[in-house]
Amino acid sequence: MKTELEQVLPGEIEARSFEIITEELEQSGRKIEERYAPIIKRVIHTTADFDYADQLVFSPNVLELAMEALREGACIVTDTQMAKAGINKKALRKLGIEIYNFMADEDVAEAAKRNGTTRAVASMDKAAALNCPIIFAVGNAPTALIRIYELVQEGKLQPELVIGTPVGFVNVVQSKEMILELPVPYIVARGRKGGSNVAAAIVNALLYLVCGR
Amino acid sequence: MKTELEQVLPGEIEARSFEIITEELEQSGRKIEERYAPIIKRVIHTTADFDYADQLVFSPNVLELAMEALREGACIVTDTQMAKAGINKKALRKLGIEIYNFMADEDVAEAAKRNGTTRAVASMDKAAALNCPIIFAVGNAPTALIRIYELVQEGKLQPELVIGTPVGFVNVVQSKEMILELPVPYIVARGRKGGSNVAAAIVNALLYLVCGR
Pick from B20, B86, B168: which is nearest to A17 by CB? Predict the structure, then answer.
């Protein structure tokens, strides 16, 4: 084996990764606010992409509000099965938090077809009818973010938090800028980059702030 | 609403995204081999990160070999639930392909504890005992790739394809370079970047090459 491997115990890989991220953030001269470091560093850990140090934006007091919502029985709604799969189930169980994804539901597919829209839009409509405070984790579909914007503007939805990290090329940048106009707590990855993995990483970082890693 | 949205029908968003990716790849002057374009562009579609045009490496004839394996009943093994969740189930059903992820299995947790290793390693050992040709989609754990390397070197495993796209900071770069030394078909994202989403995107691109989008 020509390759030199770093000797790190399985339980220490994550901590070592965060050390490296912290060192390289300092060396790069990028400034991040210390209170947001657990979120920003976990997103970098998930992507190996230091651009997120500049791209993640936070509404005022969002961490306190999000942590309170998680402690007080908010549920989580994602726009992909991938984001749902990437969220730490042990932490969810510890806090008794329900997580929903409606993208594969038949009624969602039917509503999307009927209305000539995306399943992501129909699944946000379905979420708006839930009987619990909601944290949205939207890592894929700009149409989902746009629908959240409309529902909030129409007074039909008051989310506890909108995590907006869709990725891509069509209306992605715009949909994220729209969320920044809303009077709701948000964590958004500006620009084209993001993904279900980024949305899940942000949820996990918040869960660990509440119940430990 | 201050933001100007592009008017694109739901069914046309993906095609429009690929047009944009194609245009910007050309403008950037990056050269990609045409035969690999469906893989590279789908990874860029999933990440909005054009670096992958340079970072993805392909073993000789890998597309032909992978397509043949998918047609002839190979199964897929992932190292995360996220990668499994991100792979197109309709395409899997069409081709009759089984997909496995062993990370949450009790015997895997026990084996990892007993051997002082990661669950990713134990789940690769479990995969090696499967009674089908295997395509590995490893988007997270460098220890999984390193175990695949060892099993191949020991003559205990002969995968049809290794998709190696772990992301991160500890042994990630090294584990991917190790796969490049193996006499097996591979698609690898060199460097630190990657992820479960990237592994799933590569599997999906291959599935669509076989059975259409």
Answer: B168
